Amino acid sequence: MKTECVADISMNSVLAEYSRALYEQYGLLFVDTSYGCENPSIINTQEHLRYYAQKNFSRTVPSRLAGNDSIFSAYCDGVSITGSSFALDNNGAVLNRQIISYMGAEPVEGLLADVQTNARLIQDNALDTTDVAAMAAENQAAIDAIELPPIINEDGEEEEMSLANPADVVNSQRGIGALNLAIKDKSRISKVTVDLDQYASHRQLNKGTGLNDKEDISAGERLLLEQYYYEKCSRYGGELDKSLLKYQLEYMIYGQKSDWGNLERMAENLLFWREASNMIYLFGCDAKVAEAEFIAEVVTALFCIPELADLVKYSILFAWTFAETVSDLNILFSGGRVPLFKSDSTWRLSLTNMFGFRDFLNGGDLGEGMYYEDYVRARLFMVSLPEKTMRLADIIEMDVRKTAGNAAFKMDHCLDTFCAEIHVRTRFGYDCKIERIYGYEM
């Protein structure tokens, strides 16, 4: 029994050497098998276990002075780790299990009701599949395909007529890009770039032997994971000092190598969603459609091309949708709210203001709706769990490596559970083998 106690104490001692930086930043308990060195390996852990076993069989100083033997004159003759489970085994199932355990005290009921509802509304209303920019381009192509009658200039010569479509002023600015239009002060945007080849999602992973790595995750547990991401990771407008990449939630969605790249993708995503949503409102508002129709009829009448009136009307409506959408993005990136679906009271730009929409990008708040982080969480909710898990592992590695003595930290070498055999001999010729499985959730 005493030799079994030695085995238990030794294996618990190994688990007590969990990564302090990982625990302090992310609340996770794993043994970093690099132990602050450059070469992580389960062999390092095996040597630590051997040391603890030998130490627990050794005589104390008073015993040696008194000439007393250790229990039964026993000593550790050898140690081997025969099984192991690492954080990223089975597509990160071990990591997710620890996160769920860490978040176990969080109330699941209503935890992410708004996030689920927003994600469902986006998908049910086809905001993530309705390409308004493509519709606008198709409408413009139809306008361009119609040959306009020539005009006679002052010299009596024929010249091609140019349609003075008021929507062109807005449409010409689409190429500037969503992020460049939405944020006036670009100096606020993080310029951090990383080499993704150095992180878990882009390298060949170390794997254990399959101990305690089941992947069954319930719907409620998935909500706990989502809440963990939000609590532990940074985002635009909610940056954290500990983080290398400043927009970590955006990285978990898009996986780009730079903060700028991830934020740009998020801005483009917001533009896509908001254009689809704004089009639903605008095209269904009879009063605003009538305004666009009036201007289109005036323009086409002046040039004696009434057959273009309908196309020009839609061109104006698409431009108005785009201008309002850029205004929405500017509000969101400035910390204000924009509802998922607009109403008469939350539509911001008049048709007149639409032509100079960039003069009205001064932040603000529409008084109701979702903040930027709410849109980010809805988008993150739609990303597959394996992608989120591996990108979270990247983020954890980036942050832990910033701490002293952890330059070689790798999540796939972080030990959660291990099986070990400890061989014990005595000076009387007896020997035995003790096998145990120990882990943080055993």
How is this structure best summarized?
The protein is an alpha+beta fold and 442 residues long.
Mean pLDDT across all residues, rounded?
89
Helix content: 40-55%
Strand content: 5-15%
Number of strands: 6
Shape: elongated
Reported for the largest beta sheet, the result is:
4 strands, antiparallel
Written as H for each helix and E for each strand, in order along the chain, the element string is HHEHHEHHHEEHHHHHHHHHHEE
The gyration radius over C-alpha positions equals 32 Å
Kindly describe this structure.
The protein is 47% helix and 9% strand. Strands 1, 2, 5 and 6 form a four-stranded antiparallel β-sheet that branches. It has a two-stranded antiparallel sheet with strand order 3-4. About 2% of the residues have low confidence. It is elongated, with a radius of gyration of 32 Å. With 442 residues, the chain is an alpha+beta fold.
Question: What structural keywords apply?
Answer:
442 residues; alpha+beta; two-stranded antiparallel sheet; 17 helices
